[in-house]
Design a protein that fits this description.
Elements lengths: L1 E6 L6 H13 L4 E4 L10 H10 L8 H7 L12 H14 L5 H8 L5 E5 L2 E5 L17 H11 L3 E4 L5 E8 L2 E8 L12 E9 L1 H7 L7 E2 L6 E9 L3 H11 L3 H9 L1
Parallel strand pairs: 1-2, 4-5, 5-7
Antiparallel strand pairs: 1-8, 3-4, 6-7, 8-10, 9-10
Helix pairs in contact: 3-5, 8-9
Length: 263
């Protein structure tokens, strides 16, 4: 059975990233991928980039990475409130000068997707959605919408980040079940749990996947293959208050620091 660690949306939070990497190591998962958004909002964007490069983690470009990497002046984020918009602008202004030109070029060169096949199941890794880097595949998306996206992308298992909420959804597709995996967020969760989050994707036989992911109710063969997919969500405690202090000392908005503790 294939075990893969997926994590994303670190957002400059090196303390949370180190906790997640240590937890992945402790769980014995050797294969790992980052689904983007290394920078933005947190106090140490350069440190996060360096750690990912040191560990040689295959990484997809996130929308914030694209904005900083290409010096676009904005991150392509969607803000619901004026406060969130103001916080986002302050975050970008803070982050850009801390990412030097060499690191920015590395961000700009990241791929928009990674694909592989396991046991006949086609797996796609992206940041926002199969078609757009900053599209939000929130839990309220309809099965029909998700099925169309997966069919257009030619994928049986679609793994994304961007929404900062982990989930595993099973969607009926024309050629069999389609799995959608959301990796949550390492450094800026939005689901009410302030702990760092990573997810473990399991791909293999029905027996192996059921045994390895007993709490996952979204289990089925992927597409037309006999290969099944499952998910384990991992939560990792870290020194949130330490990061909040670093954010305030760096001059980032207090609202961003407060949100980190309440998620």
């Amino acid at each position: 059975m294939l075990r893969i660690a997926l994590f994303s949306d670190i957002h400059g939070n090196l303390t949370a990233l180190d906790a997640v990497l240590a937890d992945i190591d402790a769980c014995g998962v050797d294969e790992r991928y980052c689904l983007g958004d290394l920078v933005g909002y947190g106090p140490d964007p350069a440190g996060v980039i360096d750690r990912i490069r040191e560990r040689a983690v295959p990484t997809i470009m996130g929308n914030y990475d694209e904005g900083i990497g290409n010096r676009r002046g904005e991150c392509g984020c969607y803000y619901v409130t004026e406060q969130a918009k103001a916080d986002g602008a302050a975050s970008y202004t803070f982050t850009e000068p801390l990412v030097d030109d060499e690191r920015a070029a590395w961000l700009a060169a990241l791929p928009h997707e990674i694909r592989f096949e396991e046991g006949g199941a086609r797996v796609l890794l992206a940041h926002g959605s199969p078609r757009k880097i900053n599209e939000y595949l929130l839990p309220d998306r309809s099965d029909e919408q998700l099925a169309r996206l997966a069919a257009a992308a030619g994928a049986d298992v679609v793994c994304v980040g961007h929404i900062h909420i982990p989930y595993h959804r099973l969607v009926p597709g024309a050629d069999g079940p389609v799995h959608y995996i959301s990796s949550g967020s390492v450094g800026k969760p939005k689901d009410g749990d302030p702990r760092a989050c990573w997810v473990e994707l399991l791909v293999g036989s029905a027996e192996d996947v059921r045994e390895a992911a007993p709490a996952d109710l979204s289990l089925a063969a992927a597409g037309q293959s006999a290969t099944w997919a499952g998910l384990n969500v991992h939560r990792v405690a870290y020194e949130v208050e330490q990061v909040q202090r670093a954010m305030l000392q760096a001059g980032l908005p207090a609202t961003l620091a407060t949100a980190l503790g309440s998620a």
